[in-house]
Each structure stands twice: as structure tokens, then as C-alpha cells.
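Entry 12.
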Amino acid sequence: MPGDSSTERRIRRRAAARVVVVAGDELLLLGDTDPGIPGSRFWQAPGGGVEEGESPREAAVRELLEETGLVAEAADLAGPVAVRRLLRGYSDRILVQHETFYLLRTERFDPRAAGLTVAERARHVSTDWFPLDDLPEPTWPPQLAELAAWGGGEPVDFGEVEESTVPVGGLPDDGSART
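Predicted 3D structure (C-alpha cells):
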């Protein structure tokens, strides 16, 4: 299968920010797919890469607008509520990112993913609200419902986790990976 070896796939390393968006007892999730794996789907919190000169909190606000249409201020975000080092293998690439999660409690709204790039539109399936006690499978990370109940304090450290449509396999340790 193409993409089975990490040496065949481009490796991208970056910092990222995600927002756990809660309205009442519902959680907003983005459904994405790996275009190289027909029928694949996974659900995740809105978010993405931190751009140069941007803080993770600023990136979270920008990504929230691009992916859901929701206008928020950095001060509206609680947290950070969690951090982790994510390894995500796709059929055509590997993403290695340090993720910071924030929490936003809001009124329910109709999301609009109008700010997606061409590549993001190719992977995006839908954006939907789900009951916190009945999230779709797979939801990445699976602890999003617990993060939605965060009451303050130190962020949860999930350590290093892998969430992949194609397993990552070994990664070069010497920093020589293409980004």
C-alpha cells in the first residue's frame, strides 16, 4: 500500500492549537478523511497549525474562525486545558505536532467552514454537534468529553500519542526529516 513506510511520506513538524467547543451538553467536531483511504473518517476538535509570530491562543482563535465561522476573542478561551505531542500518519504524509487545547463554552450556532484551504476542503467531510455522552468513533483525542468538563488548574498532559489512518512507523531522530 502506498504510504506504508514513513520514508515514503513527507514529514511535517509544527506547533498547533485546538479548541474544545461546548454548547450546553454538546461538542462541536470536525469530520475529516484521509483522501488516500476511501471511506476513512475521524472526528476532532477545530484547530490547526500555529503560524509564525502567532501564539497558540491566537492560532486557536484564527482556526476557530476559519473552520467554524465563529468569531471569538483570545480572552474567551479557557486554559490551556491539555497538551500533547501528536503523531498522525496519513496515506501521503506524517504530521508531528505539539498541540495545545483550549476550551470555549458558547451558545449553539450553525458552523460554516468557509475559511478552509483547498487541501483542507479535500479532507473535510462535515462539521457537526454531538452529545457529550455519545461522541462518534473515532474521536481524536478520545478524552474530548473529559476536557469539556475541565474546571481549571493545570493542563492535562497526554504525552506522546498516535492517531493515524496509516501507522507512522519509525521516525528519524536526527531532525533530518523533511518538513
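Annotation: The first strand starts at residue 10 and ends at 23. Residues 6-149 form a domain with the Nucleoside Triphosphate Pyrophosphohydrolase fold (CATH 3.90.79.10).
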